[in-house]
Amino acid sequence: MPKLPKLDTTDRKMIRALQKNGRMTNLELAESVNLSPSPCLRRLRILEKEGVIRGYNVDVDATAYGLPITVFVRITLNGHTGDVVGQFEEEVNNIPEILECYVMTGGADYLLRVLSADLEDYERFVRERLHTIGHIRSIDTSFVYGVVKNAHVFPDIENRT
Fold first, then answer.
1. Residue 161 falls inside a structural domain
2. Which DSSP letter does residue 113 get?
3. How does the average pLDDT of the chain come out, rounded?
4. Mean of the pLDDT values across residues 141-149?
């Protein structure tokens, strides 16, 4: 994993502004963080080059897209050798229904966020995708029936109260 640069207050302001609106122009970004456009663009390019800003995304309504079911899946493996873990993680990276996969502490080894069209689609996913991976001891599923908060902007760590 590459060593990331230390960020200052202006870098963090730029990042939060872009998290709120990734389509803003450099001029708008510069104005929002009180910089002139040229130094702002230079800082932005450094953040991109150094891997702090890894890309730009569009936030899409999953229901409108046709995937209204969000599922959190806790996976426990039946072993933790390098081969077992490596195979599982490689397989997970090749399954498009899995949007996020976290290595966890506690009762489960991994937490997956999965999108599904309906319950039958989720059953197909489990039978044809998860079960074929192997080395899985248990699968514990929780279906999301409401969202209270879904933030995409990091907190301002300089101005916490």
1. no
2. E
3. 94
4. 96
- CA 127 → CA 44, 59, 68, 121, 131, distances in Å? 44, 29, 20, 10, 5
Total number of domains constituting the chain: 2
Domain shared by 127 and 71, yes or no: yes
Element (H, E) at 90: helix 82-93
Strand-strand pairing, 110-116 and 69-77: antiparallel
**Residues 21-74 pLDDT 10s:** 999 999 999 999 999 999 999 999 999 999 999 999 999 999 999 999 999 999
The answer to whether the CB of 161 falls within 8 A of the CB of 22 is: no
80 with 40, same domain? no
Residue 137 lies in a domain: yes
- Contact status, residue 80 vs residue 136, Cβ threshold 8 Å: no
Q: Are residues 13 and 71 in the same domain?
A: no
The residue type found at 47 is L
Q: What is the DSSP letter of 2?
A: P
Q: How far is CA 49 from the centre of its chain?
A: 20
| Distance (Å, whole) CA 126 – CA 129 | 6
pTM value is 0.87
Domain span including residue 90? 62-143
Q: Torsions phi, psi of 100, nearest 5?
A: -140, 145
